[in-house]
Amino acid sequence: MIINESELYPFVTSDFSDRDCLVLAPHPDDESIGCGGSIIKHLKKGSRVRVIFLTSGDKGDFEGVFGGEYKDFRRECALKALKALGVDDYEFWDFADREVSREADKAYLKLKKQVEAFKPGLIYVPSPYEAHPDHKASALMGWKVFREMKVPVAFYEVLMPLYPNVLVDISKEMPQKESAIRHYSTELYYNDYVYRVEGLNRFRTATLSPETKYAEAFFLLTETVVSGNDMSYMLLRRFYEPVPFWKRFFRDDG
């Protein structure tokens, strides 16, 4: 039997901006690149948004261009980017860059306390498809929050495309999102993220109406998705089944 393409990929946009949300960013800039447009939509709706930076991203100055002040520069960039997005609720946890997995238990306990206190209706985390170790560690934290606390999780894409089950129209929010990304001057020195993210968000409109110029893609993990054997969930699940470190988190899924 041939599966209808609408079962494999969204052909309409979704909007969950009426939910309060926590945004888990492994490094300053992930929040703006991955879900900046959606953050703006939440704030426009009057929803609460809290951004948590797991690390300072202090190992991102690959050529030592910014010297010993790089960490401070990057934090200043983050504060400017958050202001551009409209976010005034944020935390810097300062775990070691590229080593979040080594302190995963400690980081997860902090996240659980945040969830219990903030009571979000949604948590944004990088997707498991991301290659960076801190992004993968963040994705695992998202899986665990969903499993233990039943809070919906939206996996977002930064450097690696994911297989989405929801698309969010950010056409009106795109200029503001780009403005936020432009504040990350330290990161733009190494990579033109504005150019690349604009291309990705434009590409994500391929199945949408012509009126939608830009969209952010997410894999939204909910009880309904899991119990209904959603096709994109099955694909994501199969992606990690062969990896022993992840396999145990799928043990009760059949």
Task: Report on this structure.
The structure is a single chain. With 254 residues, this protein is α/β, with parallel strands linked by helices. The protein has a single domain (11-224), classed as Rossmann fold. The chain contains ten helices and seven strands. It has helices spanning 30-44, 70-85, 104-118, 133-149, 174-182, 185-188, 193-203, 223-227, 231-240, 244-247, and strands spanning 21-25, 49-55, 90-95, 122-126, 153-156, 166-169, 215-221. It has a seven-stranded mixed β-sheet, sandwiched between helices. Helix 1 crosses helix 5 (174-182) and helix 3 crosses helix 4 (133-149). The protein is globular. Residues 239-254 have low confidence and may be disordered.
Helices and strands in order, then pairings?
Layout: E1 21-25, H1 30-44, E2 49-55, H2 70-85, E3 90-95, H3 104-118, E4 122-126, H4 133-149, E5 153-156, E6 166-169, H5 174-182, H6 185-188, H7 193-203, E7 215-221, H8 223-227, H9 231-240, H10 244-247
Parallel strand pairs: 1-2, 1-4, 2-3, 4-5
Antiparallel strand pairs: 5-7, 6-7
Helix pairs in contact: 1-5, 2-5, 3-4
